[in-house]
Amino acid sequence: MSELNKVMVEKYRNDFLREVEANVEEGNWVKMCMQCGVCSGSCPFGPYWEHPPQEIFMMVRAGKREEVLTSESMWMCTSCYNCIVRCPRELPITHIMHGLANYAHRLGIAPKMNPTRRFAKLFWQNIVKGGRVNELKLSIGLYFMDGFSNGVKKGLEMLPVGLGLLKTGRLNPFGLLGGGKCKGAGDIHKMLKKAQEIENRRKGFAS
Amino acid sequence: MAKKEYSFYPGCSSERKSSASNYMVSVESMCKTLDIKLNEIPDWNCCGASIGYAEGGELPRHAMNARNIALSEKHNPGQNIVATCAACWLGAKETHERLSASEQLLADTKEALKEAGLDMDYKGEVEIRHMVEVLIEDFGYDQLAKPVVKPLEGIKIAGYVGCQTNRPFGVAGESFENPKYLDKLTEIMGAEPVEKYDQKVTCCGGALAFSEPEKSQAQIKKIIESAYDFGAEMIVTPCPVCQMNVEVYQDQINKKYGTKFHIPVTYYSQLMAVAYGSSAKEAGLDGNVIRATRLEEIAAKPAKK
Asked: Does A207 score more than 60 pLDDT?
């Protein structure tokens, strides 16, 4: 168990709802869920969720801390916002799912091999580096996530797609050398460091 | 027509040699005809997209968007911010809303921005708008129809609105479940919209097309299949992620499902650029992996009026 996870378990004991309200983006909405299930029925990846949003909300209230935070479920969110616009009680469900996933990730208990967790991490590192997306580095990083031979295999599978984009001028062949860079990249690094610092302090994550 | 001016947030995918560079080319042509001046926000950065949540958390994500808003306020004072990318629009608008609603979040964001040498003068007066809002609200369908010199006659087009241009914010006066503006735009350009296209707001998988390709491609298959079922020859969309996802995986889907998909996926701005008399190149048609030959033919013909 990570240090931070231990601290949170100690702090909130069996009150997982309170923990979610205090630490998860838009978490204070969880208790408003009336269990109608519209969100679960509206989700494009609904069939792949181990526990769809409606269930997640009830599990939070029932104190199923480990089951929720170690679940692959929230990582199935495609950010389509169907659930948000359809929820009769106007819960910002997409954001709560993002928030739960982010919280589990920060506690170090999110499923390690979940592909969306890993891709999301890669994406953020990619944009933070220069301030803008470097699409070539992002794709190659994704293919080679599971080692060199897997990367070559995936790269070959994706080659026709890449070549199509290259031929139409929609991929930078020199993307590995540069690109995706703001002049103020240094400023952005400082800004994000500060933002992280403040967020850690506000949410009691500071070590 | 009076010149209209906006602060412009183009976003990463619109950069040269990026996945939506041809969207940008067509937007430039369309704006030239409509006499729209786009003042690019100097040194803008990525919005964090929706997938940024996992590693980025809350405040860093808002700080990224706030930097763009602050730069816009500094360099393009008083101008509304316009984005062409659905994710950029959503990210910036969401941050703008959250900062307007929470004094603490605003104070924290300002503190972070200071590190980037920016003092954000946050009045909350600037609006964050999508290009289609500018078209519909600041021009209106009648105005948009006027410059048409090459009506796109006889082309049946499925209007794929997708998710993030449509939810959670959407376009005023349109429903989330059956938005009509894309069909209306198609129609005034002289083409025939497929009004009963039942997958117009279905999710293509978004960023999960990278991390969960099989699940996403099952979605994309539905989106394309329905377009074919209703007799469409082309799909049109306002979103760079939708465009790319629906266009570039067709061969992989064909291999997996035994389908024979080969349908062009264009941007609304490409339709408009061609109808307004641009060349294929000016409409970014050379950037489509699956060539929109019907549009290319029209672009090559002399103007009707």
From this structure: no
Say whether pLDDT at A1 is over 80. no
The CATH architecture one would assign to domain B4-131 is Up-down Bundle (1.20)
Q: What is the CATH number of domain B148-300?
A: 3.40.50.11810
Q: Is B72 on the interface with A (CB under 8 A)?
A: no
Judged by a CB distance cut-off of 8 A, whether residue B55 touches chain A is yes
- Residue B101 forms contact with A (CB below 8 Å): no
Task: Return all residues near B212 (Cβ < 8 A) that are at least 6 apart.
Answer: A45, A48, A76, A115, A116, B205
Helix (H, G, I), strand (E, B) or coil at A47: helix
Give the tokens for residue B275. 């109808």
Distance from CA of B138 to the nearest CA of A (A): 26
CB burial string B29-60: b at 16+ within 10 A, e below: bbbebbebebeebebbbbbbbbbbbbbbbbbb
Planar angle of CA A128, A132, A145, nearest 5 degrees: 60
Contact B46 A133 (CB under 8 A): yes
- The interface predicted TM-score of the complex, written ipTM, equals 0.95
Residue A206 has what pLDDT?
Answer: 67
pLDDT computed for residue A176 by the predictor: 87
Q: Which of B23, B26, B19, B27 is nearest to B279 (CA)?
A: B26
* Contact call for A165 and B248, based on CB within 8 A: yes
Per-residue model confidence (pLDDT) at position A108: 96
How far does the CA of residue A10 sit from the closest CA of chain B (Å)? 23
Task: Collect all residues of chain B within an 8 Å Cβ-Cβ radius of residue A199.
Answer: 57-60, 108
| Domain positions in chain B | 4-131, 148-300
Could you say which of B20, B46, B50 has the minimum Cβ distance to residue A79? Answer: B50
Q: In the prediction, which pLDDT does A87 show? A: 98
The separation between the first and the last C-alpha atoms of chain B, rounded to the nearest angstrom, is: 19
> How many residues belong to chain B?
305
pLDDT along chain B (305 residues), means of 10: 88 95 98 98 96 94 96 94 98 96 95 90 83 98 98 98 96 96 98 96 96 97 98 98 98 98 98 98 98 98 79
Q: Which residues of B touch A202 (CB under 8 A)?
A: 59, 108
Nearest by CB to A169, from B21, B63, B67: name it: B21
| Domains, in order of start, for chain A | 3-111 (1.10.1060.10), 115-197 (no CATH)
Q: Out of B12, B17, B112, whose CB is closest to A191?
A: B112
